Every structure is written in structure tokens, then in C-alpha cells.
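Researcher: Quick test of sequence recovery. C-alpha cells follow.
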């Protein structure tokens, strides 16, 4: 397994890099059954769902929109492949927001899913010239982009995205926004928590590095699941590794 599995109904879709998209029936969770595969041309990394559509970040082959009407046999509706490495996506209305490695943030109009059209892009400037965008969250007109630097980008005009704030404490790999709290997987810095009531003026709540190493996360109340264990963030100033 390469990417993060995603659940749709009683099916789990597993992005599996060059092996494509694996599809499992988990009607009986104790005994998952393989029911299909989509052999994507690139490296299947991440998939999002809206209705019966799947939105696949396909690595070096960009981004694909899939028809999942027959969930065991996805078919391609449209693709976007400008020669960038697409790692993840978020879909909001008729917009697709893509985290594209060294190409930063790409914004697509997917009104016509057979013909996704880029309408904007943003590449954060870094002090050492290295930039790699991996995950993102979209809240209203703000995109939070986890990259070599963490940036909040105003996309109210998608053709002209504007950076409104950043955190430069190290590489960030993942993020999630819950209410007015931003949770960042900051690698060796662990889980960081910010108050983003005002996206242009984020306030760091975490005083120092947390006890965990975090390159991926999922927030559930006062708990954050990371790739190194469960982190208690009931006190956001001092996240603690629970196990």
C-alpha cells in the first residue's frame, strides 16, 4: 500500500502507486475481498470522492476524474496532466485544488469534468529554493498548503492566489483544519496546533516540538492519529504521545 485508503459505502479504495487503485469490499470488515482494480497510468497516491466521482492524484501523470457508477470498474471521465507531480487534491464545488510537489498549488475548473482547466496556480517562495507541496485543506476562500514551508493562500480570486501567512519552522507533510484550529504534521517537530480564527494571523498554540514524529495525521476530537501513534491534543500547547 502506498497512499491513504478511502472508504465509500462498503468499498475501500487503496491508492497503490504503480499498482494502481485497488478496490476492496469490506461488507465483512474481518474479511476484505478484492473486487476490482483501476490501472492508472501514473502512481496512484490519493483519492477523493464527490457523489459517484473519484478524483485521483496520480503522481507523475497528474490528476484524473473517474466515474465510479460501477464501483468495481472505474472509468476515466477526464484528466489533467501538465507534466507536474500531483500528490493530493481537495474538491470544492466546481473547483479542484491540487498539491503538485515542486509546482505548488494548482487550481482547476472542473465544471466540465471531461475537460479540467487550470485557472490558477501558486508556488511558495522558499529561502533555499526547494519547494515540495504534499497535502492541503480548503476552508472557505483559504487554502492551507503543507509544503517545505506552510502557507495559507487566499483564493477568493482563483486566477490570482495570494499568500496571507506562513510558518517556516521546517518541512510540513500534512494538515487538517477543525473549526478554528489548524493541525500540522511537521515531521520531526511532530504535531503542531495553530489558532487560525484569522488566517492572515495564525497563532501558534504548541509551545515546542510534540513527543511524536508526524508525516500524516487525522484529527478526531482531542486526539490526533499520526503515523507514529496517537497524540492527545486536549492541551494544544503541549501535545502528548499516547501510544
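Model:
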Amino acid at each position: 500500500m502506498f497512499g491513504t485508503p478511502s472508504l465509500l459505502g462498503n468499498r475501500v479504495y487503496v491508492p497503490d502507486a504503480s499498482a494502481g487503485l485497488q478496490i476492496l469490499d469490506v461488507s465483512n470488515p474481518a474479511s476484505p475481498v478484492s473486487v476490482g482494480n483501476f490501472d492508472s497510468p501514473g502512481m496512484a497516491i490519493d483519492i477523493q470522492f464527490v457523489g459517484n466521482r473519484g478524483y485521483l492524484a496520480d503522481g507523475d501523470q497528474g490528476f484524473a476524474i473517474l466515474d465510479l457508477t460501477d464501483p468495481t470498474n472505474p472509468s476515466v471521465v477526464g484528466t489533467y496532466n501538465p507534466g507536474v507531480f500531483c500528490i493530493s487534491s481537495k474538491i470544492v464545488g466546481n473547483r479542484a485544488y491540487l498539491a503538485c510537489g515542486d509546482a505548488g498549488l494548482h487550481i482547476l475548473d472542473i465544471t466540465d469534468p471531461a475537460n479540467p482547466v487550470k485557472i490558477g496556480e501558486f508556488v511558495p517562495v522558499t529561502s533555499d529554493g526547494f519547494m515540495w507541496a504534499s497535502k492541503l485543506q480548503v476552508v472557505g476562500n483559504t487554502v492551507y498548503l503543507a509544503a517545505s514551508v506552510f502557507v495559507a493562500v487566499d483564493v477568493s480570486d482563483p486566477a490570482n492566489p495570494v499568500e496571507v501567512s506562513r510558518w517556516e519552522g521546517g518541512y510540513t507533510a500534512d494538515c487538517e483544519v477543525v473549526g478554528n484550529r489548524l493541525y500540522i504534521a511537521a515531521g520531526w517537530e511532530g504535531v503542531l496546533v495553530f489558532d487560525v480564527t484569522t488566517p492572515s494571523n495564525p497563532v501558534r498554540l504548541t509551545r515546542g516540538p510534540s513527543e511524536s514524529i508526524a508525516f500524516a495525521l487525522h484529527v478526531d476530537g482531542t486526539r490526533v492519529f499520526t503515523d507514529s501513534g496517537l497524540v492527545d491534543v486536549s492541551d494544544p500547547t503541549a501535545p502528548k504521545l499516547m501510544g
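The chain has no helices and 24 strands.
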